[in-house]
Write a structure and sequence with these properties.
about 55% helix; 4 strands; 4-stranded parallel sheet; alpha/beta; single chain
């Protein structure tokens, strides 16, 4: 039975809750088990994922969070560095990663994408991790 690590940025708690619910319901339906690892924000997700990879306990990883554009360039740095960090980890460690960090202009856009009854991007990220785990197994990569 696959065991995944779901890393969820809690900065926008209501949005994080929707993303997490979508991912958990999907993985429950697949018969997977998972641990939920909360972190403060999206910037911290790659470091937490690196720690989870180093633990050797997981078959796949789901990154969930949200970055909403503000009045400064902070948005650009957080979006770029979190995406780059996760991509580097996936490539270096051949880690099955589902990317579910929303990058949006406002809370309304975020909720439309996160809500289980609407965009359900948490589910999409969990499914991406699942498919990458399948691919890794299909290709016989340890």
């Amino acid at each position: 039975m696959p065991h995944l690590c779901i890393i969820v940025a809690r900065f926008y708690e209501d949005i994080a809750d929707e993303l997490l619910q979508g991912a958990c319901v999907h993985l429950d339906g697949r018969g997977a088990t998972y641990d939920i690892v909360p972190v403060p924000g999206a910037f911290e997700i790659p470091a937490a994922m690196r720690m989870a990879i180093a633990s050797g306990r997981y078959n796949g990883y789901v990154a969930l969070g949200c970055v909403i554009r503000g009045e400064t360039t902070h948005y650009d740095y957080v979006c770029g560095e979190s995406a780059r960090g996760l991509n580097q980890l996936a490539m270096k460690h051949m880690a099955p990663v589902g990317y579910g960090i929303l990058t949006v202009e406002n809370r309304e856009q975020a909720m439309k994408r996160a809500a289980v009854g609407q965009g359900n991007k948490g589910r999409d990220a969990a499914e991406a991790a699942w498919r990458m785990m399948e691919l890794k197994n299909q290709l016989g990569v340890a």
